[in-house]
Amino acid sequence: MFKMEEREYGDANSRTRLDSEFSNMKGEEVQQHQGGYTLYRRRWFLLTTLMVLNISNAMAWLTFGPVAYKSKEYFNTTLDMINWLSVVFMITGIPCGMVATWLLDSMGLRMSVILGAWLNCIGCVLRVVSAIDGISESARLPVLFTGQTIAALAQPFILFAPTKLAALWFPENQRAIANMLATISNPLGIMLSGILSPILLPDADKMLFLLGIQAIPAGVAVVMATFGWWSSKPKTPPSSSAETDSQPFKEGVKMLMKNRAYLLLALTVGAGISLFSVATTLLSQILCPWGYDDEFSGPVCTSVLIGAGFIGSAIAGVIVDKSKKFTIVTKVCFTIGVAAIVGFGIVHHHENQRVAIALTLGVFGFFGVPVYPIGNELAVETTYPVGEATSSGVIFMFGQLQGIILVLVMQALGKEMKDAPQSQCGSPGEGIIVYDMTVSVYAMMGYACVIWLLYVVFFRTEYRRVNAEKAYLEGTTRQSLPGVEATAE
């Protein structure tokens, strides 16, 4: 059992007394919590800031996926290059992820979140510049790719922050739901992009309007982060585990690489991330050859997928906050989510199957999306006291690496269709080359089934953080009872 180290906070009574005096002087509202810990209402503003930032960055990530053929037409490039505008997020997520992990665990939340907000905002502004009339046609794509890359550099700083924010600012009975809300904001941004991109880009020449509207949340997020994020952690901790010093970055990474349960978790949850990323990136291209237009694959399918995922994540977050059954919940979600992928693979290449396609995507979202936020919490439980950003960050990097490979493999397996009269790919009369992605989807199905089998059969772990907090709470209770002495370790 890990020893809980008291830092400068002192004991429970002194924490409460000093914090109340300071907060009354400053006028900041606080709430009392079990064990003398103090909660700050400002934690909800910080959570909202991170949610807005996640939404904005996700919209930038998958702006072009739902309108791939129209984007290809506007920027006068290939479909593969349009896909690379999404893949660049996966590529930069690996090297930049290491920097973000170190910065979050070493320098703190505030610096990391503000840096991510500014990178995201600068990238979105450059994307707008690429569509201005004064830019030469030959310069449009390089400027766009530069902006997209800068926004991609922000992603690890934003996506790695939720577990750290939940651990430092929220009590143990709110951590999973806080992590879920911050994490699920990324798919929520994808959903908004899937809805807005086809609506705001009815024709290729409306690209400036699309990119301008999607830059607004980036500006809002940078203002909220720069002027509203005053400190990386509260004056006093919200739980006993928040008082414990995390392992130094290098030592933490070494511990992760020796933890077999964590490595299996990183592989399988990372695979779930890659499956979701690939599905949302290529969904329009998968469906359009079979008569499903951008309005169906974007506003309808993406909304069903992520809307159901948001609801499922909220329910799962409440369940694990109350029960702490992380492993059971993720295994159930994994099982039904993979079954939904198989169902989608069976029906996607048949015409007039809108209800069946939307239903399978909804089931995949409801059960598959919660695996990521709960998997992050499970990673912290499996690796405690390794830093939260380190454990969740490595999972994300595993996911990005698998996503890159999966996208490239699925692109390579796509076959040109010589006759596709029902196709809804691109603008009419443009002579668009259409690709049949059926074999690609079958490959994705097979991969999902292998990953599911590995996780359900082989994953087992101890909840280290929960056990440490229980031991600490039991010791505090014994100390508070007259005539009872705490057991020395």
What features would you describe in this structure?
- The protein is mostly helical and 489 residues long.
- Helices cover 72% and strands 2% of the residues.
- It has 19 helices and four strands.
| Terminus-to-terminus distance | 10 Å
Structural class of the secondary elements?
mainly alpha
Major sheet: 2 strands, antiparallel
Q: Percent helix among the residues?
A: over 70%
The overall pLDDT average reads 83
Number of strands: 4
Q: Beta-sheet strand percentage?
A: under 5%
Tally of contiguous helical segments: 19
What spatial form do the alpha-carbon principal axes imply?
Answer: globular
**How big is the Rg?**
23 Å
Low-confidence stretches: 1-27, 480-489
Secondary-structure element pattern, one letter each:
HEEHHHHHHHHHHHHHHHHEEHH
Q: Give, in spatial order, the strands making up the sheet with the most strands.
A: 1-2
Give the SSE map.
Blueprint: H1 12-26, E1 30-32, E2 38-40, H2 42-61, H3 68-75, H4 79-92, H5 95-106, H6 109-129, H7 137-159, H8 161-169, H9 175-200, H10 207-228, H11 249-258, H12 260-287, H13 294-323, H14 326-347, H15 354-368, H16 371-383, H17 388-413, E3 415-417, E4 434-436, H18 438-458, H19 464-480
Antiparallel strand pairs: 1-2, 3-4
